[in-house]
Amino acid sequence: MNNLWKRAIERFGHPKVYCTLFLALLLITAVFLKQNIIGLICTALVRIAQNSILVLAMVPCIISGTGPNFALSIGMICGALAGCISIEMNLVGMPALFVALFISIPIAIIVGLVYSVLQNRVKGDEMTVGTYMGYSIVSLMCIGWLLIPFKSPEMVWAIGGKGLRNTIALSGRFDKVLDKLGNITLMGNVIPVGTLLFFAICCYLVWLFLRSKTGAAMLAAGDNPRFAAASGINVDRQRTIGTVLSMVLGAIGIIVYSQSYGFIQLYTAPLYMPFLAISAILIGGASIKKASIGNVISGLIIFQSLLAISLPVINGLLPTGNLSEVVRIIVQNGVILYALTKAGGAE
Description:
- The two termini are 22 Å apart.
- The protein is 69% helix and 3% strand.
- By secondary structure, the protein is mainly alpha-helical.
């Protein structure tokens, strides 16, 4: 038994093993409390679909050698801006979603190129600088959202008509257009097949890229920069490509998240979302130097299932007062903190 435990830790890492056991404990507790297990699983699937692309955005930057992208909130701002432009153009349905996606890509590329210049100048401190830049740009855009001259009454404040609202409803625009694409209803619970399929396509594209010549060069540059440079690989260029791809996926990811959530959240909303994505991929077995599509999928399943199942279970155990919400926050932030402190992952 002891050898089996050691092999599991060596293969999967402490975060994945312990969080999986905690998830199993929550599921067993939910069964004893006679809760709707199918409903809990479907809720977890919705959360997995919502956050899927944001977690996938961590792969390019990690394998290129810049570590987890703590500045992913900058890419999210690009996506939120593109979503607002789509609404301003008075588009609805699937065209509104795809126009937002197409607009977000060039904006994220430009932002990623500028940010990568800074990343290449602060090698070894990318995560610290990324956290600072993410917080700074989010704070700066709090002013920007007030000054950008959008006119759509759905977005601007009703009084004064200037500045965007904190939360912009997407009903009648591109609310759940991917979720409803081929969705399946299971015992009254909706499974967002379209969003999950979109995530699968993005995973396949990233997988193909990693097996291309550029992807192989990026892997080499991130794994051993000195050896890669001696082999003729431009390490800074590979780091730039990884950063740009991460920002593009972050921009796409927040649009996918918004259509599933039903709202675009502005101002300080993107501030802490990178920590959720980073925690998920670290729980999935990634480290600050190595990551894979498998780490993304397993981390999403474990982390988002924990968040989806913990609240109903805690409510069942502590039905009175607001204590259940306090415990839920402790559980959520505890899992995030544990994942970040175990950033070595499978190593």
